[in-house]
């Protein structure tokens, strides 16, 4: 049976970091109307970075961003375990999975990403992706007794899972078709140093080769690589990237192109619709569209989107992009906009830890450090000022 509720106010679709930050920012900005968070997950909004780190290594189970009292105290209604199925931007309604229709004054899309799977793989137990808490717990349970893991894809998630599984004593093969881990994000030079780090920890890093199939009986047993090699596997983790969770917007008429297309404050292509976080493609300062999949970007966007939605003056919008990744005892950090195609100047390398400046057109555009947090952060002003690379190399 479907019901209709004219809840009105601001409805946030998604139960992750972007939803929580948007709701918090709304109350901080003294918005006094109704706020509803609609999530397809049963959990309170939680933090994802620990899922491939502390949660997987069984060091914590608590990743909740705010306790239930926070939502009660701030009069934020949580509708959990009942995701949005469709959006009608003319009627200003959402239809939820159980058929309930919810009215809104403004809707904020914060539905994040869906991990890519390999369609040709059979549906065997032991094959995992990692995006949510339940998936992390499922992998952790199997890692407890597993001896051999094959990780398909050496992006950030694949590398972090490799590090966590090694710590749990599992033999790990990391398979990456590109010439090095993280090659498409940070380039081959830094990728080579990351491969070195994993090899030093006993990971069998195999680059320049793909996966042609998996096989098993009651569960996965073997992975076959494109060069014909057969690998034992009790666990396979597919870490080949994600795509924006926008299927539910089919038929809404909203412009979607590698995420929900937005202007530079998060306004989508229909009135009263906004998008934030990993699912949102915002216009950048030079008129391009950028979709960022990093934690600190979310709070930055909430500080821009919420004032725009409430018709308030935004605080300063200038911030230097930042992300991190923990692999073993090495915190890899990137500040600015380093790209694989930049000229990379490695200025520190002790055989494990490293620091590199990224140069484009003679200017410093980013810094990437592995185990040099102080030196990474010290570069912030130079990156913000687009200083000549000579200022840092001098
Ligand atoms: C394992 C892992 C490790 C990470 N580590 C790092 C790190 O070390 N450093 C870093 O900078 N970033 C890291 N990130 C990225 C960071 O966590 C994300 O940038 C951040 O979670 C984005 O928040 P979000 O709210 O946009 O998306 P999400 O956190 O994915 O939240 C989206 C929510 O929307 C829900 N949803 C989806 N569809 C619907 C629907 N139709 N209706 C209702 N709800 C829906 C989802 O179930 C989910 O709860 C990591 C991500 C993962 C998965």
From TrEMBL:
GO cellular component: cytoplasm
Gene3D superfamilies referenced in this protein's UniProt entry, alphabetically: 3.30.390.30, FAD/NAD(P)-binding domain (3.50.50.60)
InterPro entries: FAD-oxidoreductase/Apoptosis (IPR050446), FAD/NAD-bd_sf (IPR036188), FAD/NAD-binding_dom (IPR023753), FAD/NAD-linked_Rdtase_dimer_sf (IPR016156), Reductase_C (IPR028202)
Record keyword Mitochondrion present: no
Pfam family, one: Pyr_redox_2
Keyword Oxidoreductase found: yes
The Reductase C-terminal domain, residue ranges: 322-389
Alphabetical UniProt keywords: FAD, Flavoprotein, Oxidoreductase
Residue ranges annotated for the FAD/NAD(P)-binding domain, each copy included: 10-302
Known cofactor(s): FAD
Molecular function in Gene Ontology: oxidoreductase activity, acting on NAD(P)H
PANTHER family named among the record's database cross-references: APOPTOSIS-INDUCING FACTOR 1, RIESKE DOMAIN-CONTAINING PROTEIN-RELATED
This protein's name: NAD(P)H-nitrite reductase
Source species of the chain: Mycolicibacterium chubuense (strain NBB4) (Mycobacterium chubuense)
Phylogenetic placement of the source organism: Bacteria, Bacillati, Actinomycetota, Actinomycetes, Mycobacteriales
